[in-house]
Specification:
Length: about 130
């Protein structure tokens, strides 16, 4: 059974940092695009950050550029999201997502439909 397990969420003050982790089990996602999405109350789920199969190419939504960093450790089958200078608008449930599409090159999908596996989500709450 394939499972993505997020951890690292919590309640912090504006300006603080958090590091989210997503540990995959049941299969390896080495060589496949990975992403982090988030969903705030009453809003659509959006792609916060994604990366291509190697991790060399990344995408960030404008609101987190310069503050968030996505990375991967394929030896541990784990993806990370380092979040610095957190703002109240970053408050949301954060989801890890894994693709099973054999993309090569710089392709780092942002569309939910590109991702076959999802974690259960971890809550991030940022207070002012």
């Amino acid at each position: 059974q394939v499972r993505l397990a997020e951890s690292g969420g919590g309640r912090v003050q504006a300006g603080d940092s958090l590091r989210l982790s997503c540990a995959a089990s049941g299969r390896s996602f080495s060589g496949y695009p990975m992403a982090w999405f988030r969903q705030a109350p009453g809003k659509e789920r959006e792609c916060v950050a994604s990366m291509n199969w190697s991790g060399k190419y990344t995408y960030y939504t404008d609101s987190v550029k310069g503050r968030f960093t996505i990375s991967r450790d394929d030896a541990k089958n784990t993806v990370y999201l380092q979040m610095n200078s957190l703002k109240p608008d970053d408050t949301a449930i954060y989801y890890c997502a894994a693709s099973t599409k054999y993309y090569r090159g710089y392709n780092r999908p942002r569309d939910r439909a590109e991702y076959a596996y999802w974690g259960q989500g971890t809550q991030v709450t940022v207070s002012s």
